[in-house]
Amino acid sequence: MRRLLPFLNGYKKESIVGPLFKLLEAAFELIVPLIMAQIIDVGIRYRNVPYIWKMGAVLVVFGVLGLGCSLLAQYFAAKAAVGFGTGLRHELFRHIGLLSYAEIDKAGSSTLVVRMTSDINQVQSGVNLVLRLFLRSPFIVVGAMIMSFTIDVKVAVIFLITVPVMSLVIYGIMMLTIPLYKNVQKSLDQVLLSTRENLAGIRVIRAFRTQNQEKEEFEEKSSRLMRYQQLVGKISALLNPMTYVLVNLGIIAVVWYGGGAVEAGRIKQGEVIALVNYMTQILLALVALANLIVSFTKAMASAGRINEVFDLKPGITDGPENAQKGGKNVFGTDPLPRVTMQDVTFFYEGSQAPALSHISFSAEVGETIGIIGGTGCGKSTLVNLIPRFYDVSKGAVCVNGTDVKAWELGVLREAIGVVPQKAVLFHGTIRENMKMGKEDASDEEIRSALKTAQALEIVENKPEGLDTIVSEGGKNLSGGQRQRLTIARALVRQPQVLILDDSASALDFATDSRLRRALKEDTSGMTVFIVSQRAASIMYADRIIVLDDGEIAGCGTHKELLGSCQVYQEICYSQLSREEVG
Predict the structure, then answer these.
(1) What span, in angstroms and rounded, lies between the C-alpha atoms of 322 and 408?
(2) Burial track 356-374 (b if 16+ CB lie within 10 A, e otherwise)
(3) Where are the alpha helices (DSSP H) in 320-407?
(4) Among 8, 204, 280, 434, which is most exposed with the fewest C-beta within 10 angstroms?
(5) What b/e string do you get for 434-472 counting C-beta neighbours within 10 Å, with b at 16 or more?
C-alpha cells in the first residue's frame, strides 16, 4: 500500500484537512459525557432548571459543530479518495499500455480487467475509510481512557484491561483475513475469465452443444469464490460480536465498581454515567475501527495485486534512434533494404521449442513480399517482429538499416501499418475509426484509402457515409467489410511498411484480386508484407517466403519456388488447378 501513496500527492490538503476535522469532531464528542455529568450532578440533583437548559443548549451547539466537522471531513476524504482512485486508474492503464505482448500474455487480460476495476475500487474505498477513521477511532479510544482517569483512577483500570484485549482480537482477525481476501480476488479472476470466454465464444458453445459443460465449470468456479467469501465473511463477522461482548463486559464492570465508588463517596452518579458513555464511545470507535480494518485488509490485498502489475516491467522500450533528423524523415531517403532479418530465432516465453529459427531475408523499398506456410508455422510471429511487438531471442531485425531495438517505438510504428488477423473496429463513426491511422486525415485521404482497400462502396452504400456508426467490435458489418475497413485504416497513414497478416481471408476471390491490384498500383515505394493461407493471394508477389515449422523452406518468385520448393508445390496444388498454378 505504501507504494501507492504517491497518488495522494495531488490531494495533500484534503488528506490533512479531512482527518483534522474528524479529530475536531471527536474532541467535541469526548466533551459531551462531561457536560451530561454536570447536568445530572448539578442540574438534576439540585433541580436547577435554568442550568439544565443552559447546558442542554451547549450540548446542541456541540452537536451542530460536530455534524459540521463530520460533513466537511466526509467531503475532503471523499475528494481525496476519488482523486487517488482516478490517478491510480489512469497510471495503471498507462502502464498496461506500455507492456509488450509478452507481458500481457503472461498476466492475462481477464486479471488485468479485475485489477483495473474491482481492485482499484477496493483500494479507493480503503483510502476513504482510512482518511475518515484512522485518526478518529484511536483518538476516541485513547481520549476516552484519559478522560476516565480524570474521573476515577481505580474504575479507569477497567479501560486499561478492556481496550488491549479488544485490540488483540482485532489484530488476530486481521491477520487471518488478509491472505483469504487475496484468494477471493484470485477466484474472482477465474470467474471473470470464464464469463469472458463464454460471452466471446457463445456461438461456438451453442454449435457444439457444450452449454451444460460450461455451466458446470462456471458453477464450480463461482462456488469456489462463494466458499472463500463465506469463510472470510464468517471470520470477519466475529469481529463485531466479540468487541460488543468485551465492551459490554467492561460496561458491567464500570457500573458495578462505579456504584461502589458512589457509595464510598469517591465519585458522583453523573460521573458513573460519564464513564459508561466513555465505554460506549470506545465500543463504537472500535466497531468503526474493526470495519475500517476489514476494508483496509481488502485494500491491502488489492494493493498487492495492483503492485504485481506495476512490477511487470515493459520488456520493449524506446531506443535512442529518432527518425526525425533536421525535419526530414529518414525513411525512404537511403538506398537501404527497408526490412532485414539477420539469422533471427524467436522463443515465446515458457516455450522450449523456437517459434522461428534462423530466419534471414531482406525486403527492398517498394517490394511486395508474400509469406505462406502451414498453420502454426510462424507467419504471424515473423511479421510481429517488424513493428517490435516482440523482441527476437537471437539475431536482429533491421528497418532502414537500423536495428528495431534502436528506434523510438512511436517513430518505428508510425512508419508501419499493421492489419492483424482479427479485424478489430471500435465503437464510433467510420471516420473516427479511419482517423486512428492519422489524426488529421482529410476526407479525401480517407476516401482514397477506402478506394484502395475496396471499401469505398461500403461508405457510399450507407446514408450517413463516413458518419455511419460502427457498433462495438464492428458487429453491424460483415467479416469482409470489417477486413476492408481495417486495411483502409492502415493505408490512411500512408506507411512505409504495410503488413497484411492474413487480413483478406473473408474476401471473395474477385475482391481479393482487385485489392491486390490496387495495392500494387497505389502503394508505390511502400514495402508490403502479405501473410496468407491462400496461394492465389501471394503468387504475384515480387518474392515469396515459404515457412515450414518456423524455418524458411524456400524464398523466391512463384515460378522459382514451383521448381525448387516441395512445400510450396504441395500448397499450390492442394488449392489450385495445374492451369491456375501456371
Answers:
(1) 6
(2) bbebebebebebbbbbbbb
(3) 379-384
(4) 204
(5) bbbbbeebeeebbbbbbbbbbbbebbeeeeeebebebee
Q: Is 568 helix (H, G, I), strand (E, B) or coil?
A: helix
- Burial class of residue 124, CB neighbours in 10 A (0-12, 13-18, 19+): buried
How many residues are recorded in the chain?
582
pTM listed for this prediction: 0.70
What average pLDDT is seen over the chain? 85
Q: Which three cell numbers stand for residue 337?
A: 533494404
pLDDT tens for 480-535 read 888 899 999 999 988 899 999 888 777 888 888 888 888 888 888 889 999 988 88
CA-CA distance, 111 to 293, in Å (whole number)? 25
CA distance 476 to 482: 9
Lookup: cell for 134: 484512522
Sheet holding 497-501, edge to edge: 416-419, 497-501, 527-531, 368-373, 543-548, 551-556
Integer Cα distance of 506 and 365 in angstroms: 28
Kindly list the structural domains of the chain, giving each domain's residue range(s) and its CATH number in brackets, ordered by start.
1-136+297-315 (1.20.1560.10), 419-494 (3.40.50.300)
The cell for 435 is 482517423
